[in-house]
UniProtKB/TrEMBL annotation, chain A:
Residues 46-73 are annotated as: Disordered. GO terms for biological process: translation. It comes from Heliocybe sulcata. This is Ribosomal protein S5 domain 2-like protein. InterPro entries: Ribosomal_Su5_D2-typ_SF, Ribosomal_uS9, Ribosomal_uS9_CS, Ribsml_uS5_D2-typ_fold_subgr.
UniProtKB/TrEMBL annotation, chain B:
Belongs to the mitochondrion-specific ribosomal protein mS29 family. One of its GO terms (cellular component) is mitochondrial small ribosomal subunit. GO terms for molecular function: structural constituent of ribosome. It comes from the Eukaryota. This is Small ribosomal subunit protein mS29. The keyword Transit peptide applies. Pfam families: DAP3. Residues 60-113 are annotated as: Disordered. Keywords: Mitochondrion, Ribonucleoprotein, Ribosomal protein, Transit peptide. The keyword Membrane does not apply. The lineage of its organism: Eukaryota, Fungi, Dikarya, Basidiomycota, Agaricomycotina. It comes from Heliocybe sulcata.
Amino acid sequence: MLQVLVVRQGCSRITARQLPAFLRTYASFQQQSSFVPPAQFEDVVSANPNARGRERSKKPKFRPWDTKDKPASPAYYTTRPSFYDTIVMLNEALQAAHRALRDCGLYPLPPHALTAIPEYPTLYMNPEAMADMLGDGQKLTTTRHRRIIDVLGELHDCRKIARAAGLGKLEEALSGIIAPFERPNKEEQLNQGKRKPVKFDEYGRSYTVGRRKESSARVWLIPTVPFEEQIAASSSLPPPSELAIQESGTASANDLPVTQVLVNNIPITEYFANHSDRENIIRPFKIAGLLGAYNVFALVRGGGTTGQSGAVITGIARGLLAQEHRRAEMFSEHIHTSFIEPIDRQLSQAPPPLVSQIESEVKAAEASGMDMNMGALGGVEEDTQVKEVRRLVQARRDKEAEVRKARQAAETVDLVLRRSKLTRRDPRMVERKKTGLRKSRARYAWVKR
Amino acid sequence: MSARRVVAKFSTFPRIQYSWSESFKLLACWRMSLSALRNAQNSLRRTAAGPSTIIRLAVPGQQRHAGGQKQKTAPKAKNSQGGGQTKSTRKKENSGQPVFRPLPPSQLQDPIFQSESRGQGLDLEAFNPDLTTPGHVGNVVAFTPTETDPIRIFGVPKNILIDHRIASKPLSVIRDVTVATIDTLQAAAETPSSQTRLVMTGPTGCGKSTVLLQAVEYAAKTGWLVFYIPRAIKLVDSSTTHIYDLRTQTFIQPKAAYQLLIRFLTVNRDRLQNLKTTVETPLDRRSTVPAGQGLVDLIEMGLKDPFLATTVLATLLDELRKQTRYPVLLAVDDIQALYCKTAYRDQHFASIKPWHLSMPRLLLELASGKKSFARGAILGALSDTVTQYKTPLELRRALGLPDVAPVGPFVKTNKTVEEYAAGLKALPVPGKLSLDEAARLFEVWVEDKAVPHSHDVPNDELFVSQYTVSEGNARGFVKGLLSTLTI
């Protein structure tokens, strides 16, 4: 696209450099004659701005070929217009991103900062898919594909920096540019080697699989008390310090939930004759401290008694991990919607500087370990608004602490179960018999002759 | 006694050749005085000696040799093997696995045992009839057997014997089913026994024998006359002699009858003093019992001559059926054994039916309602532990229990067995201990330092994990606590 500059002076003068090559004149060009074929001009104002009368009111002559299907970009004249347009667009976007990051002081980053940026993996389309997307109707060669990928890679680096720096809008914009070029099954492929997330059904039952030797078990874990009830009960409870200590003599243990385990629809006391097999099955509960929290239903096949119990154990451990994470998530969600969001709404009505001041006060007080009830030290009078804001801020911090605690509990269970190696499929299998040996390791009796 | 015979008798001991003089000395050592025996027993922290020791000491010396058996008085009190068993079977028992017996604190000197802090033992209420009300459900009570307690005299089933040794005292927890059983007994005290014929049923290890024992204890303490047969299998497994009697045309079991008589007399002596025979009955060609004779004297006649024991027992039961002064409880554990094939053989090596043996016949007649006490009840309990005497199909059907194996219309059932099983009602014992009951038992064992543990104190996790693993089953819970490796 040529940009033609028009000099608004007495005469329309175009410098030689702006003219296309075939129109450039040589030294012998007579500058006085300023004739240029009209078809070469676009949006040209009248040659004589001082003219009056009929000349001035003259409109430029309508030339039909001006408005015919003009190509949107000059790449139309290439064999792969979409590709070239894409390259240009991506490069422009990259320059804009660099400009934006440079304005924030984030580009170029020193090497130690680059290494500190968290990982953000992504996968781009392969040449066939990209060719389809571009719609040039031509096969995308490796070189051309690589050119696109290179620019996309640089854009992705900018996106990583934006994400690490918390520049939400920039990250969004960059995602909008890069996303069409990412593989549709990107998530699936990136998580290929990792453990898939455990599936839950509408009743909150987790489904996991465990294997040991030749046995495989399908295990469903069901909370004895549904999570919704637990959350409702916990939110209706007063804080522990306010609870009256109940007399132990009148307490009944009959209402406590007890873990029941059914294997192939048979209780474990009947299914596993070995006491040790039965105890091993409840070991994940003991380690996680969740005895009585979940009931187990398992379908096992293959192998012998201990192999089947081992398979069930792995399934239970994996199920416990998933259930506890889900419980923490549900709890935090409930706290956010029922407590933190209303508090935030109320706080948004207060002046932000006051809120941030009180927040920092509260943080400092907590850090120094002071009791917040001694807030008004030195008899300083606070007006009701400040008191209200302080109360809300404190309440929000308390609720956030609760959420943190719940998440930490789930993390503890996670850590403990992983350290106990119960989630790991025991890789020990029966070793094969070898030729020349009586069994896998045992040799035949040595004979002197 | 020759040296060779001494060696042969002690074949389980390392083979030591005794000389004549040495063997006499040994004999002298073995025959200890009553007081010395009691001292030995007290030092072992047992509440009292077991039934067979008591009976051996109560009966005059010559009667002990009536069966031509060698008398082996143990140097210290050996624990009883329960009722229905005679001296001839003790050799069999001793050659098997030893029954669990905890060492007394006096022998546990090492500080790890904390013997000095055991104190006086458990502070528990003794079982008495007032504790069997609904308000006491979940309470743990101790059996404190007196001199004439049914537990001591009649004995208990083997698994209960072991259970009683877990803590320093025999313990039991009052359950809902205990209260229900005792309510039934209270109501049955005024009615004939044919109207109250109950059999405890339930899954293996749920506590049927224990509930029966609690009922027996209750009856003994509330003025009932108690017949308790803790191991009915011993009446049908050919462990006592059987002799064909032409008069009754049945095989009599004199030793078994003798044992039952002496134990019954010991437990119920006070009440029997007030009862007398009502008709003249011939005992044998030799003697008759006149009307108006005290029942105690009648029984003692039977004890003097063991071969009369069966007739005396039959006469005694006839008299007891007529009297209305005291209600009579007949409690039989392993009652299914009376309906199974017995191990007795006749001269043709055919299996003798239980109703052709004197002891099972007496019990079957009462259990079926063909004969009935004027006041009283018949209680039984099934047992799954001995697989040679499983509950037969006829009894299962009579009690309304579900079939364990698929049964078609072509399976043959015995009409006589069905007759003897007719009218028995099942009293289901819940398969699970409730958490409260299990928790109370656990607390008491912890107090008594009877639970093995790795922490300072056995904690809730041990309790809950064992309860979960056993699914509340009483035997599974106890066994799990004692045999767990993951404390």
